[in-house]
Design a protein that fits this description.
alpha+beta; five-stranded mixed sheet; two-stranded antiparallel sheet; 7 strands; binds iron/sulfur cluster
Length: 231
Amino acid sequence: SDLLDEKLKEVAERQHEELAPAIERVWLDGIESIRADLREWMRRAADDPEHWRPEWFELAFGLSDRAHRDPHSSADPVAIEGGLSLRGSIDLLERDPAGRIRVTDHKTGKVRAEKNFVIGGGKTLQPVLYALAAESVLKEKIYAGRLYYCTAAGGYEERVVEINDEARAASRKFVAIIKEALTAGFFPAAPDDRECDWCDYKRVCGPYEERRSKIKPAARLKSLKTLREMP
Ligand code: SF4
């Protein structure tokens, strides 16, 4: 925990210099809350009953300008089955004593994902797509993709998606639906129930888009509906 404090101090000082916060008290409270989250995160990692061990950090693909990427990263984007090309960076990959590998995407907010899902209607894609991207970069099978809500706000909960035949089929179907829309150039505004409520683009779309889209011919939105119904 001394090393953690030392690193936090180092990063906080650097960011303080860069951001010049207006109210010192608010800044210090924010740093203390990060410290508490990190300590609990580290305690849980050390006590992990399944003994997952970190092996790769910031494994990037197609982000050659990343300063802190893992040395196994790929400078080029990776193509997953179906031909979708991905760029990104995976926070952490670990291996367990049985040799299985899982990818983790750290989340700092509240838990948004359902308890059981695969791609969550196309809204929660990281576990499956990151796992497939990692397979392509490392040339190793990935056992699972995981969202880890690693703060008090997220209750240190995790959501794990096993990379099995169902997950691979879901990814292929997702890619096919996106490809169909790209080929047709068809991207209608078709928000799901209450999706507009908290959307940053509401100012652009106006307050009636959800109501307006309900009267559009449903036949043209069939693929989108299929995607939204996928687990
Ligand atoms: S506000 Fe616009 S962009 Fe946002 S969900 Fe609604 S229709 Fe979509």
